[in-house]
Amino acid sequence: MNTDKATTSATADKAKGHANELIGTVKAKVGNLTGDRELEAKGHAQNAEGKVDRLKGEIKEKIDDAKDVVKAGVGAVKDKIDEARRP
User: Fold this and answer.
1) Considering the entire predicted model, what is its pTM?
2) Quick one: which of 78, 25, 73, 83 has its CA closest to 49?
């Protein structure tokens, strides 16, 4: 997967998650205030779904960061091997 595409995907997941968390929280509070238990439950469910999406985006970012660190380490090792092979 292209790093730019993965970063965009992570950002989109986090944004979607934050939006669903906010909307879910509002629905749950409105449901609670109006006595609409179904709306309240749907709000809690949407909030939980939002948390999952947000965390998925954060995990994708961490994976991208780890890939960058590994690539840099591999590059450093290759450079050392090249140096050692020179007469």
Assistant:
1) 0.74
2) 25
